[in-house]
Amino acid sequence: MKIQYKYIIGVVFAALAFAACSDDDEKAGPLGSIVLDKTYLTIPMTGGDVNLTIKAGGQWAFEKAVKVGTHKDDAGKTVNDYDYLPTWLTASALFGGAGETTITFHADASNSGRETELCITTGKDKQFVIVRQGSLDASSATCAEVLAGSDGKTYRVKGICTSIANTTYGNWYLNDGTGEVYIYGTLDANGAERNFTSLGIEVGDEITVEGPRSTYGTTIELVNVTVLKITKSLIKVVSENPTVGKDGGEFVVKAAYKGNGALVNIPEEYDWINMMKMDYVAGVPTKIEANPCDTAIITFKVDANTAGARTGVITIGSANSQSSSSVNVTVSQEGSIREISCADFNAQPDGSALYKVTGIITKVANSKYGNIYIRDASGEMYVYGTLNADGESQKFTEMGLKVGDVVTLVGPKSSYKDSPQMVNGVYQSHIAVKALSLEDFKDQNDDNNTFYLISGKVCEPTEEEKANNMKWDITTYGNFVLEDEVGTRLYIYGVYIGWGTTDKKQFGKIGEVHYGDEAKNVKEGDNITMIAYKTSYKGLIEGVGYYMSHETPE
Questions:
Q1: Spatial distance between the Cα atoms of 440 and 433, rounded to a whole number of angstroms
Q2: What's the whole-model pTM score?
Q3: Are 532 and 545 contacting, i.e. CB atoms less than 8 angstroms apart?
Q4: pLDDT tens, 61-71?
Q5: 3-state class of 270 per DSSP?
């Protein structure tokens, strides 16, 4: 994404409009084929209407080129959403025919200035018009006020550069203690792009910038900012952000400073990070650098981590009589892969920690990327993307996984619109489960480790069947007769509430656990699907199953 703002005022814009439409062959064409009576329209802050007259030699239309948001496609890739107009502006017409057409633009009242550039085309010819509401003069603000502000408004904000993402365009983060704002594009001293390094900005410097606010997906940005002031930091970390193994250990941070020493602050929430010692190396003055930096060599120790991966932030500061500066060091520690249930997974915080979950595949929502639902004895969870054992995507069909199989995946917990999900779960193993009719199931060898997908209607045993040791219990153990559409009957000697439990006494809580409703417990006449192994007792063929789903016929 690279957004360019054209601030061309009044008659100057009109004089340059033809040149702006002739940057390349695609835009080239006679102005006479489409003429605008204005190229710059203003609407007051209190809201209102403004008119634009178009004279066209043929069919004309606005281009759908205003980015209004983003969405994620099936692969999880962010895709831009475009519209003809920004959300704050409406127009009486977006297309028309040859001749003269008057369009009325409308905007409601606003507490800040905003602006958009629109393009109108006829054939290969284009004309541009700017619609502005209010003033775009910069408003001094905190980062928190920028985050809560309005797109299109220009803000002036001062804060510390905490990290730099791109040194060509100048993409970096600014934090003033009230929040952090992403800077997308930084102009040099002459107002030019792609010359960020000429400014000499470093992490820890205090910067004052001015630029318009924009939103890209969920990221709030100040775009193509002008740098008004740079106050160089008194301290700079000269070592990389450390990563520590799950068993813990020591690491060293080197910080160059020009203040009166270096001060370390570790927030209480990161009590697993401890400072062990600090050594100092004095700078050596030279003819080139009469006042060189001193260096603090700080040793830290990290405790062993028995939970998921975690990160912590250490602040190192330095000060003199005139000013103070601080920089942050991010400490990352690997975590153990926790093996948990589906319900416990759904309750975890979003983050990079890895979890191992095993469950029965109950639904394949997308067979290309492996978007699936899996269920165990605790509940159900959604997996947004299943990777093969090598971490490759779009290999789901090659893995041979299907509904009814028991799969083990490892992945992080995330959320989409407050719904929990595992993103890109990496395949570990699975138990293949073959779908069989009840007749074929009864022909299989007894084997507690081979599972089959079976389904049918829940029936109470007949008196004759009860006399043959077929018990009836659907409130505790799940003992019943399963009957399919052709009339084959199979005795089910217990159904576990789901994969991962050895307690057979939970069958009567299926509705409560899986659906949050006791009324959805299994009852006579319901159709039930389960995976089961075949066994026998005194000549009676039995199936012992793990619950997948059930429904009540209408």
A1: 14
A2: 0.50
A3: yes
A4: 999 888 777 77
A5: helix
